[in-house]
Amino acid sequence: MLTLDREQTTALDYSVVNTSIQETFTAIDRFEWQAIDELRLMRDNHYYKDGGHVSFKDYCEKKLAKHGGYRRVKDLFAAKQVVDTLPEELRPHITKPSQTRSLLRLVKTPDKLEQAVAIAAKEKPFPTAVDFAKAVQQVAPTTKRATKSENPKTQLCNSVTVSCLSHPRYGDSGVIEASAPNNYQQIVTFSDGERLLINNADLVGLNDAIVSELSGRTYPKEYSEAIAALKEQHQQELERLQQELRIGLQSEATTRAEAQVQEQIQSLQQLFKQQKEENVQLQQRLLEMESLRQLEAENQQLQQRIQELEHAVQERPSQQWGNTMTQQATKVLNKQVKQALEKTIDLRSLAQEPPKENAQECLRLMGMALKNLASAMNNTQALEAAALILGSEPTPSAIAYRAEQLEMLPQAVSDIRAVLAKPGCTWQDYWDVAQEYEVIKQDYWAELTNEETNLITALQNASLQPRTIGIGSIVAHADPYRTLYVERGEVVEDLGEELVVAWDCWNEQSKKTDRYFQDELRFWQPQ
């Protein structure tokens, strides 16, 4: 179903609107059958008593008055009885309860009922109420007999059915064989021979009506006009109630459709999010593959250079060799070694006079020297030695990242010792500094003394112990919906069960303090 507005109507076409109309009418018919099942559940299980109703009829008249009341419910039950009598293959031809009125008198003869529905369905795939009435006339034609020709009192129906749920012959069909004793009742003869006087309102016959006329009774003109106006008003009220029911059913179906669309949108959003994450992973894989291609290209260039050098050495005569190297190859190698040594640190100087203040700095310098030599000489063993000394993966990027971390080590140890040396140092003071060096915690922890590490542990344990609000505590209100939740106050007096708080925001007011229970307060934290 569609929810039309002024902006959407221009974008619609015939197929969309036609599909929505079909779905709307299908939903209306489906909800009418659903209402019959719910009404039967209310009646059979006596649920109406839980609502304070003495009977099912009382419930219908009070709660379903705007939908037709008890009479409408009886019609719905009668329609359900007709559908239940038919075999499965004929039931789809009846799409709504209003089509079953003419079929009701054939319920006691299922073979004729099936024949009538089959005749109507043969002419049209979805017959109307008029089509069913014509088919019933063909299968079981009714005969009308007039009583006294000079002043007929009642137009007789050949067959009628008791539709009152409280009547002992409910659902039984009979024949009117005698004139009515009055304008409100009929004498009905049933198949077992029993004759009963039954109210017209409790009977359903041909066209759902028993036509009665008043014998020789006339009304004044103004009464006739009033009666006609009441009939017109009643007809308008019925049309309004049907329209309200149709609108309610459309609204309910629209709500369900919107909920389904919302679920589909959420599932699509989740799918889009998953695809986005997969795209990011694929992009990372592509970047890794590109870096691998670059490394492979560099390796090929180095291999080609080595082959060129070997080829040059093989072409030289043996008398021009000096320790298997030509003068040109010696110059090239010396130049590369010289460039590598300019970027490294002299390991022999470190061995003769190592740093005395920081042993980790010595290891870092040695690792960086081995890393630079490995890069210059393309030596894998030197790269692994550097990674072993620095404690990282044997890759140039991992070694460089580890070296940057170790460069922060002296400053980290200095800052942490400075904050621990302050009088009244707390765990928060230490943590404000230590969280900047969290990545090298194990490194600077090894540089600290036992007294310093024990002090840090004691500060952490003290911070985990719960604090109690007392005199001098800086507090705020614990209720986030109070304005004092973000204000600052100080506990100035302890009254036992209550505490007196002086608020900073009340300094300019006449009332500067107030009393609170301890669970109404919390420690104040700057925003």
How much of the sequence is in beta strands? 5-15%
What's the end-to-end separation, in Å? 51 Å
Mean pLDDT: 78
Please count the helical segments: 15
According to DSSP, the number of beta strands is 10
Largest sheet descriptor: 5 strands, antiparallel
Rg (C-alpha, Å): 49 Å
How are the strands of the largest sheet arranged? 4-3-2-1-5
Q: What is the SS-derived class?
A: alpha+beta
Low-confidence runs of at least 5 consecutive residues: 144-155, 206-217, 318-326, 340-345
Helix content: 40-55%
Shape: elongated
**Can you write the helix and strand succession as a string?**
HHHHHEEEEEHHHHHHHHHHEEEEE
Report what the structure shows:
With about 525 residues, the chain is of the alpha+beta class. Helix content is about 55%, strand content about 10%. The protein is built from 15 helices and ten strands. It has helices at about 15-45, 55-65, 70-85, 110-125, 130-140, 220-315, 325-345, 345-350, 360-375, 380-390, 395-405, 410-420, 425-435, 440-445, 450-465; strands at about 160, 175, 185-190, 195-200, 205, 475, 490-495, 500-505, 515, 520-525. α10 (about 380-390) packs parallel to α11 (about 395-405). The longest helix is centred in the middle third of the chain and has 95 residues, at about 220-315. It is elongated. The two termini are about 50 Å apart. Residues about 145-155, about 205-215, about 320-325 and about 340-345 have low confidence and may be disordered.
